[in-house]
Amino acid sequence: MMDAILEVVPKICQLGKRLVQVDIIRNDLDGVRQDLQNTVDDMKRMVKNEEADPRKKRKNVVVAYFRQAEGYIGSAQSVLNSLQDESWLLKRMMWVLSIERHLREGQELLDKGNQLQGQGLTNNGIRKRGEKLPMVEDQYIGTTLSGIRDSAYQAMTGGRAQCIGIYGHRGAGKTNLMKHLYNKAFEDVQEFEAVFWAKAPDIEPDQRNYNKALQNCVADGMFVDLDNNDAHDEVRCAGRIMARLQEIGQGRAVFFLDNVKEDFPAYELLGIPSQMTPESTGVNCILVFSTLSKDVCNRMKCDHTIKLELLEEEEAKDLFLHEVKLDNDQLFSRRDQERTKKVAIQVAKECARMPLAIIIIARSMSGIEDHREWNNRLNEMVGTISSINKEEDIILEQLKFGYYCLKDSTVQRCFLAAAKLLPNDCQVAKRIIIDKWKNCGLIGKDREEMYVDDQGHVILNRLERMCLIQVAPDKQTVTMNKWIRKMADTVS
C-alpha cells in the first residue's frame, strides 16, 4: 500500500506543477510567437531592400524558412486561442505538452532566423522576368485588335517566328499591342522561360552613340550590368547580353523592344540571335519590336510582320463611346444622354478612325453633359469655328514624328505637296500626284521620263510604308487620313 502511494505522489506533484505553470508557459509561448513574427517581418524587409538590386534574388532556404515560420506562427496562435482565461483549468492543463513542444520549435526557428541573417538572405541570381506592365483595367479591345493579338501570340508560341515587327503610324496602338503581348507572355511561364521589355532610344546623330544607347536600353531591360566606361566596347557588350541569354538555358526567351526608329544588327549589336544563329549560339530568343515604318521591318528581316491599320468605323465609334463614358446614368438624364450621344457619334466620326485622336478627344470630353459643349467641339473639328482646345495640337505634335523620320528633304516636300491634293479623305490617282511633283520641280530634274515615273512610285511606296498615305485596293489611287493631312498643314 505504501509503495503504491509513493508511486502516485510524484505524479500528483507533477500535476500540481503543471497546474501552477500553465499560465506562465502560455505567456512564454506568446512571447516566442511575437519574437518570431518580428524576426520574420524584419527579414522580409531586408530581403525586399536587397532585391531592389535586380542582380539579387532571395535564397531558396530563406523562402522555405518563411513558409515554415508562418506555419508555426499560425499553429502557435491556435494553441493560444484554446487557452483563454475563461477555460476550465484542468482542460487547459491538457495543452501543456503542446505548449512545451511549441516553445522548443519556436526557439529553434528564432535561432535559425538569426543564423540565416548572418549568412545573408540573398545571392546573385538570374532574373528572368521584368515587371508586369500596367494596363487600363476596363480597356476597350475591339475584334480587330483582339484578332491581331491572338495571331501574333500564336506566331510567338508556335515556333514560326524569330523576329516579329509591328508597324503603323504614331498613335495606331503599337505600344498598346506590345503591352498586351508582353503581359500575356509574362504570365505564360510554361511557354516562356524569360520575358523582357525595353524602349528603344532616340536616334543619335552619331551612330556609335546610338549603338551604345541601344545596348544600354536592352541590357537594362535584361538586368545586365555592362560596366560602361568611356571606352565602350560594342562587341564585348553584345557578348555580355548573349551570355545572359545563355545563362537562362534552353527555355524560350522573348524580348520586346518598343519604338524602334531604325534597323540594327540584332546579333552583332545585342547578342540576340537571328533566324540563322539560334542553334549555333545555344540561345532561343524571339525579338518583338514596334516601329513606324515597314522599311525597318524589311531590313530587320522579320519573319512575321504586323501592320496596325485605322480602326473600322464601328470599332472607332465603340472605342470613343467607351472612353467618353456616356453611359453613366449618374451624370446624364435619359433625354440628355441620347441627345449628347448623337453628337458624340458625329465627333467620333471626325476622329477619322485613328486610335490616338479618338482616345485624346474622348477623354477631354469625358463627363461633359451639356450638349452645347458637344456641339461646339463638333464645330471645332469640322472647321466651322476655330478651336479653343489644345487636344488637337497634342495629336498633331505626335504625328509630326513620322514626317521627321522621312529624313530625305525631297520625300518630305513630296509628302507636303501630296497632302494638298488629298483633302477630306478623297482618293487621287497616283499618276496625278506624280505629275504634280514633276510640274512643281520636286522630282525629275535632268532625268528621262520613265526614270522620273519610277522615282515618283518609289516615293509613294515609301510614304505608304511609313503609313503617311493609304493605297486603295486597286493599287492605282491613294488617300490620306484627315489627321495626317492636318499635320502636313502644320509643318508646311
UniProtKB/TrEMBL annotation:
Q: One biological process GO term for this chain?
A: defense response to other organism
One Pfam family recorded for the sequence: NB-ARC
- Ranges in coiled-coil conformation: none
InterPro entries per UniProt: Apaf_helical, Disease_R_plants, NB-ARC, P-loop_NTPase
The UniProt record lists the NB-ARC domain at: 158-325
State a single Gene Ontology molecular function: ADP binding
Name assigned to this protein: NB-ARC domain-containing protein
Write the gene name: LOC110726720
